[in-house]
Design brief:
This is Probable malate:quinone oxidoreductase. By secondary structure, the chain is of the alpha+beta class. The protein is built from 14 helices and 20 strands. β9 and β10 form a beta hairpin. It starts with a strand and ends with a helix.
Length: about 500
Amino acid sequence: MSRTVDVALIGGGIMSATLGSLLQRLQPDWTIEIFERLGDLALESSNPWNNAGTGHSALCELNYTPQKADGSIDITSAVKVNEQFQVSRQFWAHLVDTGALPDPKAFIAATPHMSFVWGEDNVTYLRKRYEALKDHPLFAGLEFSTDARTIRTWAPLMIPGRLKSQPIAATHIASGTDVDFGALTHLLTKNLVDEGATLTTETLVTGIKKQRDGLWRLSLRKDIGGTPMEPVTARFVFVGGGGYALGLLQKSGIKEIRGYGGFPVSGEFLRTDNPEVVAKHAAKVYGKAAVGSPPMSVPHLDLRVVDGSQSLMFGPYAGFSPRFLKTGSLVDLFASIRWHNLIPMIAAGLSNLGLVRYLVSQLAASEKTKFAELKQFYPDADPKDWYRITAGQRVQVIKKDPKKLGVLQFGTEVVASADGSIAGLLGASPGASTAVPIMLTVLEKCFPDKLDAWRPAIAKMIPSYGSALSDDPKKASQTLQKTAKSLQINP
């Protein structure tokens, strides 16, 4: 006879850890079990070397502030993403204040965020972006300069070797962060287990089926390709298995997943651990994507703080693999095709030929060409200091569209059954940085009957819940100051 749990979380990454942490505080009498197919947590998308770890807050990511046809800058997406990240920060700060996360330095580090561009048109764009954001309460402290000497004080290795005649510009904001989502996942899950949740690793969920009694039956297998295990039934299931979420939701049979497909995107970064080089770059610097390239291709030179050690990472360089996870199967893409998502996938492919051309050009690029992109940020870069690392697999959402039949969506999307008994997360960036607001969306979609009872507890953990900090500059300033103090980062 199978055992029954109240909540089954599939996938041992930041999303499951976040949702479990919320539910454990809102409904402490519920039983929670986490199922992870690999031998440890956060080995896929949540791993610090498989994601940019910026703490996405749109402080430096230029793709969130597009220039409109009239030349003005649209800051809508930037404000939205920043608002979402502040929600995550509030929850983390609450956990630190209550002792659930004992040491914030174990997962978050103060790291200035910069945008850097070259060329007259891009300098003009960045100046307009600065003017549009500088007085916004969530972007307080943003600085702008076209002076090489000033920029050198912000990022010393980016100026030497650069032509003095080259027009350049940068913005700088000290309140940026670097987040190790792998460490955060481990800390959150440890607290979950300490408070009564169960973690089961090396366990593959091979099937999800709804029973007549309304419970979900999870078919399990020990290890990848191992022997079958006793099934588990659950009252609520969350599928946070990264790229494998699509396939598991398809197996569940819920009609809400119909029409959804996925396109896998892999990538590489250049990394250096040379302390002399790392010491000259204490920032995350994002540039502007080349004309015609997708948002995921925005180049950035990042300081990374992992396990207390500092490194620099530059990229991304796009690649392609049909796998939906780094440890996935070569047939993942083909196995995800269904009659109901075939047309959206074909339509999305035909309307994104620019992305196909970009991927082909990246795959064909020589090592010399790829290193030349780094030298645009760091002119004196020495190839001997850098080595390649493979980033995590991302599966971009493809879904039905009434006008185009199918669209490729950049972002994250919650898919839930009509009765709220199962939900899953599809998509990629900004992902981990906005895990808390995304999981609040899961709560709102799946537990509407409990939301009123939970609201006071949510507001205690996340004081801005239900409101926008942008609408209250005083509250925004107070919130940023309070969370910065708790997390021991720059306000």
